[in-house]
């Protein structure tokens, strides 16, 4: 199945694309738990090799609560992307409200070791309305 990427941001030739889907089978609205899965594709359209070193996420719920998540790599990997390469991964996000958003940035290192902060586009987390 071909994934439809709904959101994208480009920083110095590096494109970050995001597709997000609500997972009702992983959610428990009656217990105040909603869950989304997101697919990220990072494309190196620059003319230099880069390596993803860290990630920074800002996850906001509909009550205004903010959770900042910082860590090394993505899903246990620190991919190296040569010019023209891409890297895909899938992860998930639980939330205590049926709506929220995510955004952030990756820090890459160029071949000479200088850092490059690459924006992750803002994307909404929205559970479908359910009939009572």
From TrEMBL:
Sorted alphabetically, which PROSITE patterns does this protein's record hold?
A: APAG (PS51087)
Q: Give the Gene3D superfamilies listed for this entry.
A: ApaG domain (2.60.40.1470)
- Residue ranges of the ApaG domain? 8-132
- State the SUPFAM superfamilies in the record: ApaG-like
- A Pfam family annotated for this chain is DUF525
Q: Transmembrane residues, as ranges?
A: none
Please indicate which superkingdom the organism of origin belongs to: Bacteria
How far does the signal peptide extend, from start to end residue?
none
NCBIfam families for the chain:
PRK05461.1
Q: What is this protein called?
A: Co2+/Mg2+ efflux protein ApaG
Q: What is the lineage of its organism?
A: Bacteria, Pseudomonadati, Pseudomonadota, Alphaproteobacteria, Sphingomonadales
Gene name in the database record: apaG
């Amino acid at each position: 199945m071909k994934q439809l990427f709904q959101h994208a941001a480009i920083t110095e030739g590096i494109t970050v694309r995001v597709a997000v889907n609500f997972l009702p089978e992983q959610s428990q609205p009656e217990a105040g738990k909603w869950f989304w899965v997101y697919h990220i594709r990072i494309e190196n359209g620059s003319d230099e090799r880069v390596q993803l070193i860290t990630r920074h996420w800002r996850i906001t719920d509909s009550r205004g609560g903010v959770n900042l998540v910082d860590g090394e790599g993505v899903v246990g990997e620190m991919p190296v992307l040569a010019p023209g390469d891409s890297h895909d991964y899938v992860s998930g996000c639980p939330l205590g409200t049926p709506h929220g958003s995510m955004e952030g940035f990756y820090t890459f290192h160029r071949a000479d070791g200088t850092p490059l902060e690459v924006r992750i586009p803002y994307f909404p987390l929205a559970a479908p309305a359910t009939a009572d």
